[in-house]
Amino acid sequence: MLQLIATILYILLILTVVVVILVDKGDAGRKFAWLLIIAALPVLGILLYFLVGINYRHHWIFDRRHQKYKDIFEKGTNDALNSLLFGHEAESLVREDFRPLAVLMGRDAYPTVSSGNDFEIITRGKRKFELLCEDILQAKEYIHMEYFKFGNDEGGKAIKELLMKKAREGIKVRFILENIANFPIRPRYYNDMREAGVEVVRFTNPRSHFLKFVTSINFRNHRKIVVIDGKIGYTGGMNINDNYFNLWRDTHLRITGPAVASLQYAFMDSWLTAGAELDRPLIDYYPVAAGRQPEPGKLMQIVPDEPDLPMPMLLYSYEWAIQHARKYIWLQTPYFVPPEPVLDAMKIAALSGVDIRIMLPERADNFITRPANRAYYEEILRAGVRLFLRQGVFIHSKTFVCDDYLSSIGSANIDSRSFDINYEINTYIYDEETARKCKAIYEADLEESRELTLEEWSKRPWHNRLAESIIQLLSPLL
Hints:
The chain has three domains: 2-53; 67-305, Endonuclease, Chain A; 313-477, Endonuclease Chain A (Endonuclease, Chain A, 2-Layer Sandwich). It is 44% helix and 19% strand. It is built from 20 helices and 17 strands. The protein has helices spanning 2-23, 28-40, 42-53, 67-76, 79-86, 99-105, 125-138, 154-168, 187-195, 210-214, 242-247, 259-273, 313-324, 340-351, 369-374, 377-383, 416-421, 432-446, 454-457, 462-473, and strands spanning 114-122, 142-147, 172-177, 199-202, 224-228, 232-236, 252-256, 298-305, 328-332, 336-337, 355-361, 386-390, 399-402, 406-410, 414-415, 424-430, 449-452. It has a 15-stranded mixed β-sheet with strand order 4-3-2-5-6-7-1-8-16-14-13-9-11-12-17, sandwiched between helices. A two-stranded parallel sheet has the order 10-15.
């Protein structure tokens, strides 16, 4: 009798999970992949689904992480800050053909366009290291830092020592630790920072109740953010370790001006939803908002995205930019496992005569990435997308430039993990001069690249084709 009851409950559990997957409004390919796994390995598949498969964007079971932040922000904001972050005045300064993208990305809980910004595009890790060290040393009030990787190596230790030095001087230093991604680093590394006065919080809190913890460990904080005194900001693709400072090719931004408020907004969201506190009114952390009006200048839109928000805005932005490119769109990414809408947009644009180029590293930095990237080569090459493989050092840039006007520099890769699972942040720049600079950077990378043709790719061995086909089937889960 007990065995019969257990069998019935087991079948009901499988049917319930299958129904939950089917009614989910997420990507069809992702749903199919989960159904395939559960059909092949029911017990393990169900366990994995609860651990890493639940779609937070559309699920009502779990509490919203951001309610605390929303409550604090609504009580602490003022008209000037609301206008800067969520007003739409500066959208009118965006060129008419790109204005719909600015409107799209500035909806609901996403920051809008700001004007009058200044920034430096950083393409060498050594340059970022030097600038960041200098700005940290010059901090007068506080330093806010949020990174996916914070290394226990020469470069990471140097930044760590500077943060500890400033904390001992009385500067408020807040540091968000992506503890899952940095799991190999011993706790003592961060305890040293705490003892020096740095406020360190774990992004994924293992002390939260079990159900909340196990259903959130798959969601990585992949952002790279620094905000110093509310006036200087850093964001882009570079983490804090020696790979980025000395070895890899990546792209980053140092920003001054109103756009820093958007970086601060994203940092505060992570800080407060991770369970941390503030020591003074929220508005004090937004000095660039004080009585400022829109003005001509560099137009920037900083877009944070995460699985807790209702729309995959970074996914939408890539779709829109590719679909609306009239002359060209040139993209760089180290990880290329495109969701179907982005893949279709690329093929349609290329078949329509738009110059679509994508640059990937010749050699991947892990054993999964290489076949995952390669699984899509033939499909895009047949559509006329030009594919360039960056040789030499590993390229980690996540950028695109479009039609000599729109540039994007961010943390998001072209894959489902970045568009649906990770906490990411991208910067969009509406400016012809900047687009020309980004195009020149891309052209310099082309000199270190080789173009892969369909003819060459068609000659690869059959066992490589088989491995790529298997990986492609599971790509929505990568």
